Amino acid sequence: MKQTVSAIALMLALAACGGGTKPEQAQTSEAQQAAATTGAAYSIDTTATTVDWKATHKGGMAPRWGVIKVASGTLNVENGTITSGEFEVNMNSLTTDPASVTEKDKKSTDLDGHLKSGDFFDVAKYPTAKFVITAVAPYDSTKGKSLEAGATNLISGNLTLKDSTLNITFPATVAVTEGDVTASAKFVIDRTAWGIHYKTEGSPENWVISKDIEIGFKLKAVKK
Q: Which residue from 57, 69, 176, 204 could staple onto 93, CB 3.0 to 4.6 Å apart?
């Protein structure tokens, strides 16, 4: 199931740096086989789809947040349920909200450039990120904690950042009608799992920037 849960929306309100897996952290494993493409096709409406990210410095200080644009994507629906999908994110579109940069000597555009550099996402070499759905299942709120209020489904998919692909699983709210599909989610990923280690050297208490990234997305797809 290649579900293109917009963004899935590629990076959430990070938690402060520190050890231990947080309940809101997406479950991460090796890449899995993409879900079979069955059912009616829906195209991602890139103008109505948003992906938000949030990250912090040491101890949760100086949070930064911004957006990334979804370039394209499709979903497939059968019997009122998403069966597969995938979407691509334009990493060159990554921007930082100026409201999150309050220091007088810093600019949001400087952070944009740094995040796009080889220290982080190296967008000159890896201009796109990709998410491919591998499974969609009902979500049982009694068996887990979610940053997404009212989550209805548990979505798994292969997330490719730079040259690494890992499978992530997170709760999402999904609504399917005859004409469109909407989905939203919010979760945390550990950037170091994809080989992005900048300022996470040594013991966690010495990290300058949190390894966690919070990603949120709101997606809309319309029937072809």
A: 69
- Hey, what amino acid is at 103? E
pLDDT-based confidence at 144, cuts 50/70/90? Answer: confident
Is the alpha carbon torsion for 14, 52, 139, 28 positive or negative?
negative
Region of poorest pLDDT, from 88-92, 187-191, 197-201, 203-207: 203-207
To the question of pTM greater than 0.85 for the whole model, the response is yes
> Letter for the amino acid at 218?
K
Domains defined for the chain, CATH in brackets: 27-219 (2.40.128.110)
Question: Which element (helix H / strand E) includes 125?
Answer: none
Nearest Cα to Cα of residue 171 among 129, 212, 215: 215
Structure tokens at 219: 């997606």
Tally of CB atoms within 10 A around 57: 17
Q: Mind giving me the DSSP string for 117-131? A: STTTT-TTT--EEEE
Q: Answer yes or no: are the C-beta atoms of 47 and 72 closer than 8 Å.
A: no
Record the tokens describing residue 186, joined without a space.
Answer: 């919010």
Tokens of 75: 């979903």
Residue 159 token pair: 């997330």
- What ranges in the chain are assigned the alpha helix state H? 108-116
Give the confidence band of 17 by pLDDT, cuts at 50, 70, 90.
Answer: very low
Contact 3, 219 (CB under 8 A): no
